[in-house]
Amino acid sequence: MRILLRTSVAMLAFAMTFSTWSAAQNAGADLFKSKCAMCHGADGKGETAMGKKLALRDLGSADVQKQSDAELAGFITKGKNKMPAYDGKLSAEQIGDLVKFIRTLKK
């Protein structure tokens, strides 16, 4: 009986973790589409007219993906070069969701 209970609890914890991660990915994808895709493109490659003009890096590239979550969150929060700062416009949770979404673009 104890084994069954432990297994059930473990499965429930896994399901809750997975659903939370999935929800964060969806929230990040929606935010990316509304706040970032105009320059970075829907796929994050930066192959939009503005992305080309600004010589944006592919967000799925190794040089972007090797940056820490804190570094990526810092760029979103404070902005970088022509990229606007989202401090005060997005919550810390939303910025975290964007970072999680950027991680899904890894090559």
Describe the structure.
The chain has 107 residues and is mainly alpha-helical. The chain has a single domain (2-103), classed as Cytochrome Bc1 Complex, Chain D, domain 2 (Orthogonal Bundle). The chain contains 6 helices and no strands. It has helices at residues 2-35, 37-40, 49-53, 62-65, 69-78, 92-103. Helix 1 (2-35) crosses helix 6 and helix 5 (69-78) crosses helix 6. The radius of gyration is 17 Å and the shape is elongated. The model has no long low-confidence stretch (mean pLDDT 88).
What is the 3D form?
elongated
Task: Find the CATH superfamily.
Answer: Cytochrome c-like domain
The CATH architecture classification is Orthogonal Bundle
CATH topology: Cytochrome Bc1 Complex, Chain D, domain 2
Number of helices: 6
Main beta-sheet strand count, sense and barrel state: none
Write the element-wise H/E pattern from the N-terminal end onward.
HHHHHH
Radius of gyration: 17 Å
User: Could you name the ranges where pLDDT drops below 50 across 5 or more consecutive residues?
Assistant: none
Our estimate of the beta-strand percent is: under 5%
- Domain count: the total is 1
In oligomeric terms, what are we looking at?
single chain
Which features characterize this protein?
single chain, 107 residues, mainly alpha, Cytochrome Bc1 Complex, Chain D, domain 2, 6 helices, elongated
Secondary-structure topology with pairs:
Layout (H helix, E strand, L loop, with lengths): L1 H34 L1 H4 L8 H5 L8 H4 L3 H10 L13 H12 L4
